[in-house]
Amino acid sequence: MKSNKEVLKYCPNYYSIVNFDFEDGDMISEKLVNIYKSYIFSINIDNSEEIETAIELDRVLTNYIHDYLFRSTLQQEIVTVKVRKDNNIIKSIVDVIIKIFTSYEEYTTRKIYISKWI
Fold it and tell me: Whole-prediction pTM value?
């Protein structure tokens, strides 16, 4: 129990992610939240690499619930992911989710309109 509280210190958005109301029938979002919970509570808090991944996953899923465009992008791309059975499946999926978000951040630009007063 003590380690769970320490993990939650690294994942400040845990409750907003877990309690977010997705649309009815949105199985992908439900699975992503389950993967999130499974991963963060299975990490070794003494391993800095796993903590960094948990922090990044927390940030990614926070963007997932707030950014509709990223949500639709992730839902389209996560369906095509293939994971080998001999690997840690949850860790592999988490790595793919983070990779998709990194790609999304790099290649997505939003137009910013500057209004001029005449």
Answer: 0.82
